[in-house]
Specification:
Layout: H1 3-7, H2 13-27, H3 32-39, H4 43-55, E1 59-62, E2 66-69, H5 71-93, H6 98-108, H7 114-129, H8 131-137
Antiparallel strand pairs: 1-2
Helix pairs in contact: 2-3, 2-5, 3-4, 5-6, 5-7
The protein binds calcium ion.
Length: 139
Amino acid sequence: MDRAAKMEETPRLEDYLEAIYQLVQEKGYASIIELSDRLEVKPPTVSAMVSRLAKGGYLEHEPYRGMRLTKKGESVALSVVARHSTIFEFLSLIGVDRETAYQDAEGIEHHVQPKTLRSISALVKHMKENPDVLKKLNE
Ligand code: CA
């Protein structure tokens, strides 16, 4: 992936929560260093954001013991993960290559309205149930 292009946008609150959620799923814990690697952001910046998120009630952070999402944080994380996967699936189905689909999903996931997401979900379902539609589209 083009690192410069990826660095252009600062990760948002939602990206932090999403990354913490994923790290905990994958490794059982999330630390400042892990987050810094995943989000390609310097550790002091990550630290500051993690404090903000803790203040906002999105996570609990114990020094040296890592962090975990609160209910509030987890519900935001799950919502981003769901938006991401729906958009990614939709773009993949219509023939967009994986990397582009991933990058676009990263952007769109923060802006898409629930109504639009529901329509995209319905369309994804329709396309999966009717493979001939997809075949025609990707010819
Ligand atoms: Ca994201």
